[in-house]
């Protein structure tokens, strides 16, 4: 017997083996853990606010990991703002807004987060919904989009909680190409009287941002402003500057032709309209013509800001492009038009200088916010270093750089595609040959039949010989 065996056996007899329960069985929660609803209401409100309240859609920038941002930084291109990288389709029967985003999740920076919190339970929804609807600013690209949402999509109890509405897009009429009707029809100018009627249904509304064109027909707005003397109104217009034809008016909206979005920047012009309460305190006479005059002042400000930006912020150049149309008769005279190119000057050379105070007149200044500016040189250098480090690590693991791996994979796919095409061509040629050889002469057919009969005879003789051999072997055994 081995030494100390008795001591070891005695020690093992005191051990207790604990078997864990199966994963599928119910495990009681440990004492001391708090349920979410056991938190004080003030703490829950802070959690709801942190999860649901976001900046305005126009103020959300690309995330550092966004593919659009990384591509623009890599190639030193303009950064298209996230809120313009989506299109909206309006259906009238039934009323619905369908948002189309970039394929393959190239950019989801503008997508609201935390919305699943509102669906976790009735009590959570009852507590969180007022915070979501009252503390967020709801932004639209078109007046049509806002009318559809406020009149048909929002429940009255939610619409009454809305406090801020904003409409801004790269079109001075308030109907950019980003928003289309599902039936493909063109509905013309936005009926701003209907917009103000829809906005008036928001009982707690205290701030509205609209394009200048919304005050060209100010009768309904005048009624709303007189009813709510503290309503804050700003006229915001997005001025596009795109390389190509139609400088100052054209912009990119096609998500399939994504590359065109990297050649446009935008300037936001803001004009504050005084509230009725402020005007009454100043003793100003208020009527519909007063708001119409404010709209004209904003139009003049937009023109001045555009001219100032062209003179101080951009280095413009033009080039001539020949218009080509396959449907045009070759005998027609060619049509030429001017296209524009520009280079941004150091005053707005990167996204850190997006806020600019421009002198629009004698002792007159206006604040302008730019969208789409490229990243700073420091950011581009940092990004280049990160890419180099990633490539070196990729080479260490795979024996080649990432681009070489992509090229090799592309060559492999091209070679496989060519082989498939050759196989299809060979099969088609063989099929055509068999079809052509089916119409044979009688002599050839007779020769083939004799050959086939001889082949079958040889096979039969071989089978008979094999059967006789097996029979002899069986008899001998």
Automatic annotation (TrEMBL):
It comes from the Eukaryota. It comes from Colletotrichum orchidophilum. Residues 36-214 form the DUF7730 domain. It holds the Pfam family DUF7730. Residues 436-477 are annotated as: Disordered. Residues 449-460 have a biased composition (Basic residues). InterPro entries: DUF7730. This is DUF7730 domain-containing protein.
């Amino acid at each position: 017997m081995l030494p100390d065996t008795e001591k070891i056996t005695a020690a093992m007899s005191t051990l207790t083996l604990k078997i864990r329960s199966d994963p599928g069985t119910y495990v009681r929660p440990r004492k001391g853990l708090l349920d979410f609803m056991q938190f004080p209401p003030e703490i829950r409100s802070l959690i709801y606010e942190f999860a649901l309240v976001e900046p305005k859609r126009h103020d959300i920038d690309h995330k550092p990991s966004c593919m659009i941002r990384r591509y623009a930084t890599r190639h030193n291109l303009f950064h298209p703002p996230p809120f313009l990288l989506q299109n909206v389709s309006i259906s009238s029967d039934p009323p619905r807004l369908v948002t189309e985003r970039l394929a393959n999740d190239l950019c989801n920076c503008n997508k609201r987060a935390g919305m699943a919190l509102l669906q976790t339970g009735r009590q959570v929804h009852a507590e969180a919904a007022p915070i979501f609807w009252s503390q967020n600013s709801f932004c639209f690209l078109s007046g049509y989009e806002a009318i559809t949402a406020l009149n048909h999509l929002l429940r009255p109890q939610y619409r009454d909680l809305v406090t801020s509405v904003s409409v801004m897009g790269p079109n001075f009429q308030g109907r950019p190409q980003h928003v289309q009707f599902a039936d493909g029809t063109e509905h013309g100018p936005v009926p701003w009287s209907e917009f103000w009627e829809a906005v008036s249904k928001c009982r707690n509304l205290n701030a509205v941002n609209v394009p200048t064109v919304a005050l060209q027909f100010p009768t309904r707005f005048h009624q709303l402003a007189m009813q709510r003397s503290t309503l804050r109104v700003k006229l915001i217009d997005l001025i596009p500057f795109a390389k190509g034809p139609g400088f100052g008016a054209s912009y990119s909206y096609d998500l399939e032709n994504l590359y065109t979005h990297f050649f446009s920047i935008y300037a936001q012009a803001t004009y504050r309209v005084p509230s009725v309460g402020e005007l009454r305190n100043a003793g100003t006479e208020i009527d519909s013509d007063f708001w119409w005059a404010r709209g004209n002042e904003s139009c003049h400000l937009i023109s001045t800001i555009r001219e100032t930006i062209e003179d101080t912020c951009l280095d413009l150049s033009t080039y001539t492009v020949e218009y080509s149309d396959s449907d045009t008769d070759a005998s027609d005279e060619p049509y030429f038009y001017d296209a524009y190119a520009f280079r941004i000057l150091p005053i707005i050379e990167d996204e850190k200088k997006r806020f600019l105070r421009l002198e629009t007149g004698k002792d007159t200044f206006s604040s302008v916010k730019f969208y789409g500016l490229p990243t700073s040189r420091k950011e581009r250098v940092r990004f280049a270093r990160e890419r180099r480090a990633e490539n070196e690590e990729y080479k260490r693991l795979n024996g080649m750089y990432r681009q070489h791996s992509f090229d090799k994979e592309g060559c492999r796919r091209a070679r496989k595609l060519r082989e498939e095409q050759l196989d299809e061509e060979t099969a088609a040629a063989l099929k055509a040959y068999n079809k052509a050889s089916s119409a044979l002469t009688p002599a050839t057919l007779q020769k083939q039949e004799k050959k086939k009969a001889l082949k079958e005879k040889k096979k039969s003789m071989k089978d008979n010989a094999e059967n006789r051999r097996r029979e002899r072997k069986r008899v001998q055994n």
